[in-house]
C-alpha cells in the first residue's frame, strides 16, 4: 500500500481568507462569530453567524467565470488554488490521469437555487439563467477545480452533510493508498448563510439562540444550546509519499488512518450510545497505529449542541477507555461556527497544523464545565505540546461518522 502525506493547505473561513490567517487566528483564540450581515436577521430567533468577510473571488477566477458560479464553488476554487500553490507543485508536474479531485458540499449552490426561484416567481420561467443547474448542483465545485488543473483522475463530489469534507479527504486518501492517483485535492465548501437555511435550521432546533457572540458557539460547555452557522471552504493537497519526497516537497503530516461508519439511528440526532461513531474513531486510530496519550490531539466535531457533545465525549471514551482522559481535545467550531460541509476540511487543516507546529488550538468562550463532557477540552487558550498524532472527527445529519488520523513525519 502507498503512504499518503499532506503537502498543501488552503482555506477561506470566518477567521481569514487564507490558511495562514485562519490558523494564526485559531491559535490566538479569535472568535469569528458576529451578527449576521448577509441579510436582516433581526426577526429571526438566531441572529449570529460565522461569516466570511472581504472575500474576492477574482483573485482565483476570471470575472466572467465568477458570474457563472455559486459562492460555494468560489470558496472551493479559492481553497483549492491556495492548497495547490502551497504544495509547490509546478504546472504539468502530475500526469492528468494521476491527479484527482474530491471536493464536496453538504448543501451545494443554495444561493443560486433561492435567487433563481425568486426570479421564476417574479418574472416567469423564460428568465431563468441557462447556468442555473450547473451553478446549483453539489458536484460542480469538484468539477470546476478539476477543469482549472486539468485533473483527469478520480473525481467525486461527496455529500454527507457535516461529514462531507472528512469523507472527501478520507476517500481521497484511499484513492492514493490503493494506487488510483498520485495527487488529490480534497475537502469541502459551503455557503448557506441566507434566510431560507437559517429558518430551516431554526425550525429543527439546531441553532443557538444566544445573542451574545461570546456565548453562542460554546462546545462542551454546560450552557451550550446549539450550533452557530458558519461558511467557507477548505482543501488539503494529498500526495503519495514517494512522489512528494522525490520532488523535495515540504510535508506537513502523514494521513495514515480513516474510519467511516453510520449510526443507522435517526435522521438528525446522534445515537446516544455512540456505537458507530466510536467505531469510526477506532478504525482510524488502529489503521494509523495511534496509541492514546498526551501526544494525541483530537479536533472534535464539537458543534455545541447538547446531544452532539456528550455523545462525542462518550465515543472517545468507548474508543480509548480511560486513556481518553489523556487526549488533548478541542473544538475549533467555537471560533469558526459550524461550516457544515466545509467543517471537516477546516478541522483537518487545524489538525495537520497542530501536529506540524506542536500547538493545540483552544475551545474558546468555555466557562461552565459539564460532567458529561469531562475530557481535556483545552479551554480558552492554545497549548504548546509535542504531538505525535492528531484525529479529526465529524458527525453528520443522516448518521454519517468520519474520522481522519494524522501522524507526525
Order of helices and strands: EHEEHHEHHHHEHEHEHEHEHHEEEE
CATH superfamily of the largest domain: Thiolase/Chalcone synthase
Name of the top-level CATH class of the largest domain: Alpha Beta
Number of helices: 13
* Low-pLDDT windows of residues: none
Average pLDDT rating: 97
| Helix/strand class | alpha+beta
Per CATH, what is the topology of the largest domain? Peroxisomal Thiolase, Chain A, domain 1
Strand content: 15-25%
**What can be said about the biggest beta sheet?**
9 strands, mixed
Query: What overall geometry do the principal axes of the alpha carbons give?
Result: globular
Radius of gyration: 20 Å
Query: How are the strands of the largest sheet arranged?
Result: 4-5-6-1-7-13-12-8-9
Helical fraction: 25-40%
N- to C-terminal distance: 17 Å
CATH architecture of the largest domain: 3-Layer(aba) Sandwich
Structurally, the number of domains stands at 2
In total, the number of strands is 13
Descriptive overview:
- About 35% of the residues lie in helices and about 20% in strands.
- The longest helix has 17 residues, at about 70-85.
- The chain has a 9-stranded mixed β-sheet, with helices on both faces. It has a two-stranded antiparallel ribbon with strand order 2-3. A two-stranded antiparallel ribbon has the order 10-11.
- With about 400 residues, the protein is an alpha+beta fold.
- It has helices at about 20-30, 65, 70-85, 110-125, 130-135, 140-150, 165-175, 195-205, 240-245, 275-290, 305-320, 335, 345-355, and strands at about 5-10, 35, 50, 100-105, 185-190, 230-240, 255-260, 295-300, 330, 360, 385, 390-395, 400-405.
- The model has no long low-confidence stretch (mean pLDDT about 95).
- It is globular.
Amino acid at each position: 500500500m502507498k503512504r499518503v502525506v499532506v503537502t498543501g493547505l488552503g482555506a477561506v473561513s470566518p477567521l481569514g481568507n487564507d490558511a495562514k490567517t485562519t490558523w494564526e487566528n485559531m491559535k490566538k483564540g479569535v472568535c469569528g462569530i458576529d451578527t449576521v450581515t448577509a441579510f436582516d436577521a433581526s426577526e429571526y430567533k438566531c441572529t449570529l453567524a460565522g461569516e466570511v468577510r472581504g472575500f474576492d473571488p477574482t483573485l482565483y477566477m476570471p470575472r466572467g467565470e465568477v458570474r457563472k458560479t455559486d459562492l460555494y464553488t468560489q470558496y472551493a476554487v479559492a481553497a483549492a488554488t491556495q492548497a495547490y500553490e502551497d504544495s509547490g507543485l509546478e504546472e504539468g508536474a502530475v500526469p492528468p490521469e494521476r491527479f484527482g479531485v474530491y471536493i464536496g458540499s453538504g448543501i451545494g449552490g443554495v444561493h443560486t437555487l433561492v435567487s433563481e426561484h425568486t426570479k421564476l416567481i417574479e418574472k416567469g420561467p423564460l428568465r431563468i439563467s441557462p447556468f442555473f443547474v450547473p451553478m446549483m448542483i453539489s458536484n460542480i465545485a469538484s468539477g470546476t477545480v478539476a477543469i482549472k488543473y486539468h485533473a483527469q483522475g478520480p473525481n467525486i463530489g461527496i455529500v454527507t452533510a457535516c461529514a462531507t469534507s472528512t469523507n472527501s479527504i478520507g476517500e481521497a486518501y484511499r484513492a492514493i493508498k490503493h494506487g488510483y492517483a498520485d495527487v488529490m485535492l480534497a475537502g469541502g465548501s459551503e455557503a448557506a448563510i441566507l434566510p431560507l437555511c437559517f429558518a430551516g435550521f431554526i425550525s429543527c432546533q439546531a441553532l443557538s439562540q444566544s445573542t451574545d457572540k461570546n456565548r453562542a458557539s460554546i462546545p462542551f460547555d454546560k450552557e451550550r444550546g446549539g450550533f452557530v452557522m458558519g461558511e467557507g471552504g477548505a482543501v488539503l493537497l494529498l500526495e503519495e509519499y514517494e512522489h512528494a519526497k522525490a520532488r523535495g516537497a515540504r510535508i506537513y503530516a502523514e494521513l495514515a488512518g480513516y474510519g467511516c461508519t453510520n449510526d443507522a439511528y435517526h435522521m438528525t440526532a446522534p445515537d446516544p450510545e455512540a456505537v458507530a461513531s466510536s467505531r469510526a474513531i477506532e478504525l482510524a486510530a488502529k489503521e494509523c497505529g495511534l496509541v492514546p496519550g498526551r501526544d494525541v490531539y483530537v479536533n472534535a466535531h464539537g458543534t455545541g449542541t447538547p446531544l452532539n457533545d456528550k455523545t462525542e465525549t462518550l465515543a472517545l471514551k468507548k474508543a480509548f477507555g480511560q486513556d481518553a482522559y489523556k487526549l488533548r481535545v478541542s473544538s475549533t467550531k467555537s471560533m469558526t461556527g459550524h461550516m457544515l460541509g466545509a467543517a471537516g476540511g477546516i478541522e483537518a487543516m487545524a489538525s495537520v497544523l497542530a501536529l506540524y507546529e506542536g500547538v493545540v488550538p483552544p475551545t474558546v468562550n468555555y466557562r461552565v464545565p459539564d460532567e458529561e463532557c469531562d475530557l481535556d477540552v483545552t479551554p480558552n487558550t492554545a497549548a504548546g505540546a509535542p504531538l505525535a498524532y492528531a484525529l479529526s472527527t465529524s458527525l453528520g445529519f443522516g448518521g454519517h461518522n468520519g474520522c481522519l488520523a494524522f501522524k507526525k513525519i
